[in-house]
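Notebook entry, structure prediction.
Reason for the run: the old model in the group folder had no record of what sequence produced it. Starting over properly, with the input documented here first.
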Amino acid sequence: MAHILKVRGNRIQSFGRKGMASLAILSLLSACVAAERAPSRTPAPAAKNALPSQKPTTPALPVRPSVVRAPVGLENLLDDQWRAFPGRTGVAIMRIDGGEWITGKRADELFPQQSVSKTWVALTILDLVDQGKIRLDQKIRITRDDLAVFHQPIRDRVIANGEIDVTVLSLLEQAIIGSDNTANDSLLRTAGGPQAVQNFLLRKKLGAIRFGPGERAMQSAIAGLEWRQEYAIGQRFYAARAEVPLATRKAALDRYLADPIDGASPEAIVRALAKLAKGELLSPASTRLILGIMSRTSSGPNRLKAGVPAGWQFVHKTGTGQILPPVATGYNDIGLMTAPDGTRYAVAVMMGSTTASIPQRMAFMQFVSRTVATYHGQ
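New structure, fully documented this time:
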């Protein structure tokens, strides 16, 4: 059932076809950082060489006037909810079919992608498949020296066997569906490294989307560390991070948030998803393959996906950054919603930094996808 949410003070009221019920999902938002609610110029990084590789250039996204305007009711509701949500959040919504329009909040600013960037690694790999340079059944060897950090279910197999051989197709599935960092870094290495992904983004004219140096180097720098391969085993990364002085860690995190090396604008992301959906980035076979894989994403079931009504289709990729209490960073979800009549919408919600609880973050994302469906056809 479609719902419309309106803000009354710091409460949200939910209206549906079967009646009206109030829902106070934002009453705990007293930690809201007021200065972050209004757009402001991003400050320059406080120190040089904060990250292990030079940030790639990001050409300005070309200005494309919309054919029609987004529904005013949708824009008003989005504005109300966005202003009430604590922290720095970017949103972009784009209707792809039946009269293109795009709307959002902070849509042209750069936000940390975190694992959202696995999308671009997968597209780069499939572009190489389309060129005949890589095969889906090609096997990639992974050793202990290739292990990464944080979520990497493949690690146990590598440690148990010393090394394993995995097909490109299997790595694509593990990187996107399960957001496995080692699987993703193995694909990145196979593609030719970070510059190969950045070259794909530039060649396909995907605008303000950066690609960072890979999980190990980037996550270490965000934590105020330099990567050591021993951090890939067990809880050693967490133990090393816990030894970093709080001031050092906060300074490193602040530098990253001020100018994220893996930053992307919500608008650039939804335009890239629209190109993917229309078959403008990959061959028809590769387009079907990646959209099929993204339809099986297991992470973030209570983010955007939970607000998509029954009868709609949804494919997506999540991203989640590091937390330095009380601030969570890089809490993201991007995807394609397809209505029963075939109309497609690209959606991106990117929470650069927020003090909201996990249920509050999820509720905001659900509000966005639910409201898109509510205003479909209007």
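Summary: The domain at 30-116+126-133+203-374 is CATH 3.40.710.10 (Beta-lactamase).
The old model has been moved to the deprecated folder.
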